[in-house]
Design brief:
Length: 306
């Protein structure tokens, strides 16, 4: 039997599209044996591995978005620049701090939001061992101390999801096992290779990152910093995605990472992307492993030639 694994990438609110993909896979009775997620991909994937069905995850996420504890984050403030290009997290952080005249205060701690606020939010996440989940699951985070990528395959689900989604500068790093952990997207936004570590023999990746487009002439230093980070993240994602057997990209690249008020629209985009690629997904799930290995080898050779 094939062991189809999902690699669910980060992208803030855009990552809710993963839920739409899961809904279609479930409806089509396409069995998923393992999931590895990064940031919002880790949250959606971890909840699915816990509940085992998309409807409960959808209810959980839609309720969480409306929860008063989440409302305290006041994410709408970050969405004032809806007409502008999708800034990276650092760019939004600079704007957010500036608008609230809290730059000096924030520079005296490790993140804008304090630990108490984020801990209260993550108390909504079931506190169960990752290794006990019905579907094999792992979450990717980045250790600031060693500079290494960490793939949580055991330990508390709540800690793993909190670490994987700790956006640097915005949410506090998570201390665990002598490590100081932040968002996994610092090293691997779509963890296509990591899901193989927990048993997948074929990988379906869902990429909800935005594509970089030609830049207008830089106006200042921050434009250069933003653009540099965008390019690095984009090409790192492309490199890691080479390890996926199939990649689907929901049409959410024009949305902001803080567009949580568009959750239902984003879920629909995930469903549409899965249905458009349904034949390819079914083919991947049924494909002979030997033929799949040959296909991967040819792909690798072509990549080396290029």
């Amino acid at each position: 039997m094939s062991k189809l694994g999902l690699a669910l990438g980060g992208g803030g609110a855009r990552g809710i599209a993963h839920l739409g993909v899961l809904k279609v896979l479930e409806e089509e009775k396409i069995k998923i044996t393992s999931i590895t997620g990064c940031s919002m991909g880790a949250i959606v994937g971890g909840l699915y591995a816990y509940y085992g069905n998309a409807k409960q995850v959808e209810e959980f996420i839609l309720q969480a978005i409306k929860d008063p504890k989440v409302a305290l984050l006041n994410m709408d403030t970050l969405n004032k620049d809806a007409g502008e290009r999708d800034k990276n997290y650092f760019g939004y952080l600079i704007n957010y701090l500036g608008e609230r005249l809290n730059v000096i205060k924030a520079l005296g701690r490790l993140s804008y939001f304090e630990e108490e606020i984020t801990s209260n939010i993550f108390k909504m996440i079931p506190d169960v061992p990752v290794e006990s989940l019905p579907i094999k699951f792992s979450a990717v985070a980045t250790d600031l101390i060693s500079g290494k990528e960490i793939n949580f395959t055991k330990g508390g689900l709540r800690t793993a999801l909190k670490a994987s989604s700790a956006i640097p500068g915005i949410f506090p790093p998570v201390e665990s096992g002598g490590m100081l952990l932040v968002d996994g997207s610092a090293l691997e936004n779509v963890p296509a290779g990591r899901v193989k570590e927990i048993g997948a023999d074929r990988v379906l990746a869902v990429d909800v990152s935005y594509n970089i487009s030609p830049m207008h002439p830089a106006k200042n230093l921050l434009d250069i910093l933003y653009r540099t980070e965008d390019i690095t993240s984009h090409h790192l994602s492309l490199l890691r995605l080479n390890e996926a057997d199939l990649i689907i990209r929901p049409d959410v690249k024009e949305l902001s990472w803080v567009d949580f008020n568009k959750a239902e629209e984003i879920i629909s985009a995930g469903e549409n992307a899965a249905r458009q690629n349904l034949d390819a997904i079914k083919k991947l799930a049924r494909r002979n492993l030997y033929l799949l290995e040959v296909q991967r080898y040819i792909k690798k050779i072509k990549g080396n030639v290029q």
